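G., before I forget:
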Amino acid sequence: MSRNAAETEGKILDLAESLIRKNGYNGVSFRDLASGVGVKSSSVHYYFPTKEDLGAKVARRYTDRFLNALGDPQDGPVTASEIVKKLHGLFVSALGSDGQMCLCGILAAESAGLPESVVTEAKSFFDRVSEWMTLSLSRTEWARNRSEEEIKAEALSALALLEGGMIIARVRNDPALLTTLRPQLAR
Amino acid sequence: MSRNAAETEGKILDLAESLIRKNGYNGVSFRDLASGVGVKSSSVHYYFPTKEDLGAKVARRYTDRFLNALGDPQDGPVTASEIVKKLHGLFVSALGSDGQMCLCGILAAESAGLPESVVTEAKSFFDRVSEWMTLSLSRTEWARNRSEEEIKAEALSALALLEGGMIIARVRNDPALLTTLRPQLAR
DNA sequence: CGTAATCTACCTATCAGTAGATAGATAAAT
DNA sequence: ATTTATCTATCTACTGATAGGTAGATTACG
């Protein structure tokens, strides 16, 4: 009996994130999580009453961590290429060596059939990352003769390229593909 | 008793495609398909012995239809912007007004947990579309002073941008987003 | 031609396994 | 003594899959 609350809850979140990124939301069960962590499925319900609750919390944690790694846009890189490089680097390390999808990318792909609060959290990832990009880019020389709309479109297209790149890298079993895509980001 | 083989099989494929695009592979069951088509689940097994078999056939059909719509690259548009426009248009109509994902996009996102033959078919979509793009672009003025590698990278990044754009359009419930992304394709 | 055999396209019924979820017991920590 | 963290046990619903049956259409044959 380990009887270590924080540890178990964290382990469940970790494993849930990893399994959702691998198999999608519908490809993960309470029993998978329980057996992976070494408890019974009822104990998973103890921490996360419903699957929706678990999914939303995993997504929120992922997004918080992602934005934390990006840092404060007011205190970040000041050239467009460095900003893009930072975002790109985060996606590359998220994909990892074993081709893990972006959690919110796979949730977004499945979103039409997911519980409301999970979709809300997935949406929030894109809102927040795209806001980080927009704010960061706005401070650069590159943005001087560009409209707010152009900057937002650039942020969104960078995100789209990276998410799509992950998908293709994954199905091709070729994590290096995402690296290949980097030159397409800087312009 | 309708007793109309071709019709039933086609209806199953149509519905399976639509449901997978909405909910993902793991979000579709034989019973969903059966009740939607108006038969029993055992009849779905009659046409498609296993779910893997069904998934692979749905993916193959989708890819064939997609490439057919793209047409013969030897007999298609000869400018880079028209080529890009054609591909973009197909993705826009695939997304539709109700935000349906690209079938092979969602399968690729889930691919780590899917049966082998389904993954093979999903991969084939990207191989074939990217080959269409590469062949098409190679015939253009734009390609004159570019290497094979550069052209392939361009094809892949266009595909990535469109797949990622669909994902984001979908989670934002904003099909117009994909249209916004078009200028980012032409360069 | 007529009829027997086979095939097609479904059906009912059922299986073992798994899904998410809940109730209630228990032991340890506070 | 209460709260916390787990367990056992169980529920109903659903999963993919299979066995075996049947009405009607098609084909083979004498």
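Residues 1, 3, 29-31, 41-42, 45, 49-51 of chain A lie near DNA strand C (CB under 10 Å from a C1'). Residues 52-184 of chain A form a domain with the Tetracycline Repressor; domain 2 fold (CATH 1.10.357.10).

More on Monday.
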